[in-house]
Amino acid sequence: MIDDSFNPEDHSLGESHYFEDLVVGQKFHIPSRTMTDALFAAFQLASGDNHPIHYDIEYCKARGHRNMLAHGFQALIQTAPGAGDFPFYIGDSLVGFIEQSSRFLKPVYAGDTVYPLLTISELTPQNTTGVVTMTSTVHNQRRELVLEGDQKFLLKKRPA
What we know:
Layout: E1 27-29, E2 33-34, H1 37-47, H2 52-55, H3 57-62, H4 72-76, H5 86-90, E3 94-104, E4 113-125, E5 129-140, E6 145-156
């Protein structure tokens, strides 16, 4: 049975926000996550990284680590904007994800809980678009900053 009152184009989480709607300092939290052995195994399958520092507890302990270390990219993917509400907030104004950089400051171990956050740090207007620079951070349960970096997005300006 076809429901003429339903339109897939109306199925969204809200109206799109545009470049002009954003402000420096605006925060977009990403849910916390405990880095379980299952997440380590899934990352190993996806990345193909088989170094024992990430998957062999005895190897890690022999080198002074208390547990297996997350791969740097495994820590980085915790800042994926789609894991939070940023892409839903900007909606159709997103043109693209254009740049990413990161610094790995402390190890992330299996069993750690991480707390990712994106914060708008710069807004660079252009003619019909603007570049949104967001600082990405990840803290652990001990309140240590384990990762920081930048992500840049190209957004449309509000239509006239």
